[in-house]
Amino acid sequence: MELHELVEIVDDQNSFLAFVEVLKKDREDSVRKEKLNPSNPYSSESNGWENGTIESFLGAAHAWAIDSDFGASQDLAEANMWKKMAVFLYCGKIYE
């Protein structure tokens, strides 16, 4: 299952932790790929990672939370907190 599909089914502690594990493995895979074949500095890293440092990752997640009212503008207002936190972390990867 793709990471963007997995985030959609997070609904409790166990599914959140499973999502975090897959996100971690996705980042490890991206780092490995980047060492072997670095991406153009003007494009995303391997596996679609837009934010390759902890600072940029957290900054992007924070920016998404502010810009979307923590997902309220993306139909997440009624979502449980586990899913909101999974989306928050996923947006750390992809949000520019």
Automatic annotation (TrEMBL):
Protein name in the entry: DUF7660 domain-containing protein
Instruction: Domain (DUF7660): give its ranges.
Output: 14-96
Tell me which InterPro entries the record gives: DUF7660 (IPR056077)
What is the protein's species of origin? Vibrio quintilis
Pfam families cross-referenced by the UniProt entry:
DUF7660
